């Protein structure tokens, strides 16, 4: 008994020392991770977007590089510059138009030359909101000062909301430009980046890591097709109605519909005011045709997304769709891709678990590896 006690005491002391030392190391590692996250947090979203854009545009970059005698760096730079121009040029035009409109409105208001035409009887005939809209419009057309006084809180709220949307749009464009530049850097070093991603994937997930890396890339391209592709089709359908029926500023309105659709906001935000405007000056028949046209086009994303989202991957479309929508509700637009990727990985894990024979995990893994080879 006397000989065992010292040994037992020494083993207990060693165990406690190991536990304390491990706890200190884990605590220091946790602190290091938290500090690292705080440092890279401002760059996290642009880098994620850059990676998503790089994965989505990689096939286009390779095709362009073939035309440029294999110069992938030049191809990536040209695509990034094209994307920056597509983002900045419309922003400059819209900002200039808004600035000119504000200056002109200020001059007209100071000179007392504001004349708002009164509403027609068709406005009052619009179901549900017609009477209220007619009375508000009439007040603004007959007694502008009184109307501004009566609706000053609502006007301030609307102006503040518009300014917030405008500022948010500018920030979004700036972040998009930064993301495009990061994506160009990723695409210019595609080969080394691809090897690094595969190495890390295998290190994290084992032999199936490379397969999952390919799955993530395919899922991102699938979601991008379901988002940008549907937004483009929806903008074309609604824009065609704007041009056919001669809506003023049809091009600008079509661009706004495209931007809203990419942001996963309903196109009806733009469409409904236009419908009200159309009913104010068109006959009932063409106004009804226009309304049916743009409403069907505005709701077309409910049909197009299930058709396009999930193409190119073996994951069932409902899994991709649920992941994209759920991710967007949790994390915004970036969640469209993250949510779809997470559910796709979980689906693969679940199906692999179901296919693995009970009590024979190693044999199942070997079979899977032989199948992949």
Structural features, described:
InterPro entries: AI-2E-like (IPR002549). Belongs to the autoinducer-2 exporter (AI-2E) (TC 2.A.86) family. This is Hipothetical membrane protein. With 373 residues, this protein is mainly α. It folds into 2 domains: 43-206, no CATH class; 207-355. The chain is 85% helix and 0% strand. The chain is built from 15 helices and no strands. The chain has helices at 4-67, 72-111, 121-124, 130-142, 144-150, 152-188, 190-205, 209-244, 250-262, 268-281, 284-298, 301-308, 317-331, 334-355, 361-372. Helix 13 (317-331) crosses helix 14 (334-355). The N and C termini lie far apart (60 Å). Residues 362-373 have low confidence and may be disordered.
Work out the number of β strands. Answer: 0
* Overall average residue pLDDT: 77
Low-confidence stretches: 362-373
Shape: elongated
Beta content: under 5%
- Largest β sheet strand count, sense and barrel closure: none
Q: Give the number of domains.
A: 2
Task: Please identify the structural class as seen in this structure.
Answer: mainly alpha
The helix count comes to 15
Order of helices and strands: HHHHHHHHHHHHHHH
User: What gap, in angstroms, lies between the N and C termini?
Assistant: 60 Å
Please give the share of residues in helix: over 70%
The radius of gyration over CA amounts to 29 Å
